[in-house]
Structures are given as structure tokens and as C-alpha cells.
Amino acid sequence: MKTGQQNLNVQKWVAVFSVLLMSVKFIAYYSTHSVSILTDALESIVNVAAGFIGLYSLYVAAIPRDHNHPYGHGKAEFLSAAIEGTLIGSAGTIILYKAIQNLVYPAELHKIDYGIWLVAATAAVNFIVGYFCLRTGKRNNSLALIASGKHLQSDTWSTLAIIAGLILLYFTGYKWIDSVVAILAGVFIVFTGYQIVRRSIAGIMDETDVKLLTGMVQVLNSNRRENWVDLHNLRVIKYGSLLHLDCHLTVPWYLNVHEAHEEIDALARLIRKEFGESLELFVHSDGCLPFSCQICDKAHCPERKNQFVKKIDWTLDNISRNKKHELI
Q1: CB atoms within 10 A of CB 201
Q2: Following CA atoms 107, 110, 114, 116 in sequence, which dihedral angle do they give, to the nearest 10 degrees?
Q3: 54 with 84: CB under 8 angstroms?
Q4: 195 and 220 assigned to the same domain
Q5: How many CB atoms within 10 Å of residue 228?
Q6: What CA–CA distance (Å, rounded) separates 48 from 43?
Q7: CATH code of the domain covering residue 190
């Protein structure tokens, strides 16, 4: 199954479960009148909206590239995550308002034990669904699924905090605990929303994924071929689950076209082996220059002009520059 379709199927289940869990949480709220449970129920409205927005974005992202979108439709995932993060932040703000209001004017509570069992069940389901979302999203490089998974698991932790507060309330009878727990949950939810929005904007703006590039540089350093004299101008752009990589590979100038292309193919095979098949590479081959001899340890080179001095290890900094490496 293609990654786009797999992502879409997972998100369909997220949307279905979000509706069911929202219904359970509202039943728990109307049974107890607990503002902390209302906090959970309000966030579930966001879960439902985000679930269907994510579903649509993954549907769009899975559409094959066309002449109007030569790099595909994967950027739709970043927009989905931005909307989801904004909704989460908005829900957190409303939760804070309701919690502070309830702290000043506390409501009468009922059937707290019943509410605890209901929200505990939703927490368990949320965690399981969120786990599968995150695992699939990371495997397929899907920001929309990662955002959904993080949202669901943050919902789980906030629900557990609410359950702990309700248990404490149940045994002590202190009504203010209900509001304090809701305030803490609201702050956590707002922060989660901010993180998702921040990451989606980074994707839209093609911000460098430092973790991804660092791992890629390590793999390239560990698997250098002797004909890979130099590698520079390396850039990675994300289009949803598709990674687009550009770089310049310097090879011995006397290689013919077929030999140079074999080096590029070897580079592509290495990257795809380590980072998945959802990768598109555009590699420009350069011929080496006389100053390249000082950093090239190729044995028995028939055209060496200078003695080898030192191999330059590729780093996140020097591999990104649009300039051949040389000893200063």
C-alpha cells in the first residue's frame, strides 16, 4: 500500500474515534457538571474538527503530482497542521476562561466516580490511537499524522491529570481542585497548540530540519565512496510525506557520463535505504579541480595534480554551502 493511502486510512479511524470519544466526554460532563471534564469535552470538539481537516489534507496530499503541482500536493499537510494547532490553542484559551470562571463561581458536582470511569476509558482509547498515528506519521514523514498523534496523546495526558484531580476531589470534597486542574490542563493544551503551529509554519517556510540533515550527513560520511571527492549545496525540502533532496556531487573529472551517473545512483540508493522510498533526488555532478586533490584520498588516480593532505569530514555547516570544499 502506498504511504499516502496508508496515511489516509489511519486518519479515517482518527476521525471516527474522535466523534465517539467526544460523545462519551459530553455524557460525562452532563452527568457530573465538572468543569475539568468540560475541559476535556471542549478539546474533543477540536479533535473532531482537526480529525476531519487532517483527513481532507491527507486526501489532497495523496493526489499524484500534475503540471500545476510538479512537486505534488504534500504542502496541504502543513496547512492542516497549522489549522489544527490554532484550534487546539483556541480550545485551551476557552478552557482557561471557563476554569477561572468556575473558580470564582463553583458549580455543584454530581456522580464524580461515574465521570472518572468514563473519561478514563476515553484516555486509554486516545493513547492507543495516538500511538498508531505517531508511529505511522514518523515512518511515512507525514506531518498531518504526527500532529494528530501528538494531539491525541497530549489529550491523553491532560485527561489523566483531570482524572487525578477528580480522584482527589472525590476523596477530599474540595471543589476548587476541579478548577485548578482545568487551568493546568488549559495551559498544557495552549502550549501543545503552539508547538504544532510552530512546526507547520517551519514546514511551509521550508525551514531546515536539523535532525533529519544531521542524520543524513552522518550516513553520507560513514559510507563515502572514493569517487565522491566532495559533496556540497545539500538541501532537503519536505512536501508532506515526500522528501526532495538537492545536492552537488564532485567526482573525478575524467569519468564518463555513465560512470558519473553510477556514482549518483549509488548516492540515491544509500539515501533511500536509510530514509525511505518517499524521496526524490536531484543530484548535479561536478568534475574535480586541481585544488580538490588535496582533500581527495582516491588511490592510483591517473590525473592527480597535488598530493593528498587531509580528508574534510562533511558537517551540517559545510555540506550546505554552495561551494566546493578546499583546504585554506
Answers
A1: 14
A2: 30
A3: yes
A4: no
A5: 19
A6: 9
A7: 1.20.1510.10
* Rounded Cα gap, residues 35 and 200, in angstroms: 31
Alpha-helical segments (H) within 205-288: 210-222, 257-275
What distance lies between CA 155 and its chain's CA centroid?
17
Question: Residue with C-alpha cell 472518572?
Answer: 116
Cα–Cα distances in angstroms (integers) from residue 108 to residues 32, 118, 194, in the given order: 8, 19, 33
How far is the C-alpha of 248 from the C-alpha of 42, rounded, in Å? 51
**What is the rounded distance in angstroms from the CA atom of residue 153 to the CA atom of residue 129?**
8
Segment among 2-6, 154-158, 167-171, 280-284 with least mean pLDDT = 2-6
Task: Write phi, then psi, for 95 (nearest 5 degrees).
Answer: -60, -45
pLDDT in tens, 233-280: 988 877 666 777 889 999 999 999 999 999 999 998 888 888 776 677
Which domain range does residue 272 map to? 210-295
The pTM (predicted TM-score) of the whole model is 0.58
Q: Assign 237 to helix, strand or coil.
A: strand
Amino acid found at 111: K
Choosing from 149, 175, 204, the residue where a domain stops is 204
Residues 159 and 171 sit within 8 Å (Cβ to Cβ): no
N- to C-terminal Cα distance for the chain?
A: 51
Q: What is the pLDDT of residue 1?
A: 52
Which residues fall within 8 angstroms of residue 15, CB to CB, at 6 or more apart? 48, 51, 52, 54, 55
